[in-house]
Each structure stands twice: as structure tokens, then as C-alpha cells.
Amino acid sequence: MPPSPTAKPPADVLPSGSEKASPAFSGSDFHAAGALTAVLRKRIISGEYKLGQRIIERDLREEFPFSNGPIREALQQLVSEGLAEREHFKGVRVVNLNEQGIADLFMVRLALLEGAAEQAARRFDPASLPNVERLKQDLREVIKKAKRGEQGEWVSGRFSSWLLETADNRLLREIWVKNMQLTLVYVNSFTKSPRVKSLELNFEVIDAICAHDVQAARRAVRKMTRQTLTDIGVKVDIFDDS
């Protein structure tokens, strides 16, 4: 189960990152802040930084060749993206929602998914079927790896990218990116076993979209979201099936 709002946060000591100082981090403060933000974002989303964990400026200065300016800018960017939160006199911590907060987050995710699935089903171009077949073949390989207990690359969002490209809605894509980043924090933090059922439900969504079946596509993404919540142990029901 996700931790309660009063649960003791994880240790404040950051794990040692695998990213080392490199030429990519040289240059202006602007580029330095962007590069550092990308590294820290990846650590949060992957679960390397634990929920509620403090991200300490001093530790970042020791690990990366940056001054205070780029470090503080990077941390503020994480706060603006909703991946971290700033506490008065305590600095920045990785965001740590309670169960109801997670349910609310996934309710927004579901609304975005349903809208994207509906538009994709209406706008799907049969000429792109070869791309769909490649997508499905890649998904089969990921499922095989998941069944063997191996970590696949599906978390990178290839299915979501295809869905949003097919929906062809720029504003929806922009809103989706922030929501997806935050939901992945909880998926990666709480999922203890391979998400085979959730992955298999991607096929149902894809097939409904290719068939231009709007209602089937919406039902499929609801099933997929319900399964994801089951995977991460959230029992609050966000669905109105009446």
C-alpha cells in the first residue's frame, strides 16, 4: 500500500548516482540547469530517489560541477513539474502523495487517456498499419521479458507516444507529459511484480483504435487504468461504471 501522509519519510541521504561529471555538463548556467534537471528527473521517475526523500543542494554540489544557481534552478524546475515539493526551511523533497492524492492523479490520467483514445480511434490512418504491427511486435518482446522477470523498455512511453501521435492533439500531448511523469513515479515505486496484465491490455487499446471503435477504445483504457491501480496497490475506486 502507498504510504500514508503521516508515514515516516525515507532516509535523507541521497543514493550515489551513476551519472558522472562529463562535458555535457559544461557551458552556461542555462545548459547546466537543463542537464541536471534531466538527471534528477530520471532518478525520481525511476524510483532511485525514494518518495519523500530530501534532495540536498550540498550533495549535488559535491556530485556535479555546478554552482548554486544551476542547482537551485534545476530543483525549482522539478517543483514546477510536480515531481518535487519545497518545504519551508526544509528544502526540496520528492513528492509523496497519500492514497487519495494518487487516486486523484490517476483520475486525471484516465480522463486524458480516454480523450486521446477517442481522438485516436476517430483519426487512425490505415496506412500506418505497418507501424502498428512493429509496435505490437515490440510489445510482445517486452511481455516475454516481463514474464521472465526482466526489466523492459516499455516504461519509456512508446505506447503513449503512439497513442498521442495518432490522436494528433498538441495541447493534449503537452498536458499528458506532466501527468505521465508523475504517475510513473508511483508505478515504479509501488509495483513489485512485472505488470504483464497491464502490458497485455495495450493490445486491446491498439486494436480498438485501429478498428475506429471509439467506445471500445475508451473501455480498454479504463480497464488498463484499473489494472495499473491494482498493480500499485491503490484500492480507492476512481471509476463510475453506472
Task: Give structural notes.
The chain is mostly helical and 242 residues long. The protein has helices spanning 29-46, 57-63, 68-80, 99-123, 129-147, 158-167, 170-190, 196-210, 214-232, and strands at residues 54-55, 84-87, 91-94. It has a 3-stranded antiparallel sheet. Helix 4 crosses helix 6 and helix 5 (129-147) packs antiparallel against helix 8. The longest helix has 25 residues, at 99-123. The protein is globular, with a radius of gyration of 19 Å. The model is unreliable at 1-27 (pLDDT under 50).
User: What's the helix-strand series?
Assistant: HEHHEEHHHHHH
Give the strand line-up of the largest sheet. Answer: 1-3-2
> Stretches where pLDDT falls below 50 for ≥5 residues?
1-27
Largest sheet entry: 3 strands, antiparallel
Query: How many helical stretches?
Result: 9
Number of distinct beta strands: 3
